[in-house]
């Protein structure tokens, strides 16, 4: 599974509608509105890199209110739960 973090610049007056439209796309796991340099952050999970090309420019990029995107591919996932489970073997 390939995970990508998509930073999205969106029209300020349509952020809730834009976020929901993005969240409704297959392959989009989560969408967050946030403060800072970007308006929305989407977590995308697909089975192949080619799927990103279909999903991000062809679907997310075409949603009304989306100005541009910046995509970051995740190499590895780290979380507190992963660390705790590694040390819980044999408990």
UniProtKB/TrEMBL annotation:
Pfam families: AsnC_trans_reg. It comes from the Bacteria. InterPro entries: Dimeric_a/b-barrel, Tscrpt_reg_AsnC/Lrp_C. Residues 6-76 form the Transcription regulator AsnC/Lrp ligand binding domain. This is AsnC family transcriptional regulator. It comes from Amycolatopsis albispora. The lineage of its organism: Bacteria, Bacillati, Actinomycetota, Actinomycetes, Pseudonocardiales.
């Amino acid at each position: 599974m390939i995970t990508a973090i998509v930073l999205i610049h969106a029209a300020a007056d349509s952020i809730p509608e834009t976020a929901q439209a993005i969240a409704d796309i297959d392959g989009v796991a989560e969408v967050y509105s946030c403060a800072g340099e970007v308006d929305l952050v989407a977590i995308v999970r697909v089975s192949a890199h080619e799927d990103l090309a279909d999903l991000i420019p062809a679907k997310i990029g075409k949603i009304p209110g989306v100005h541009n995107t910046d995509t970051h591919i995740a190499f590895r996932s780290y979380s507190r739960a992963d660390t705790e489970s590694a040390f819980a073997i044999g408990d």
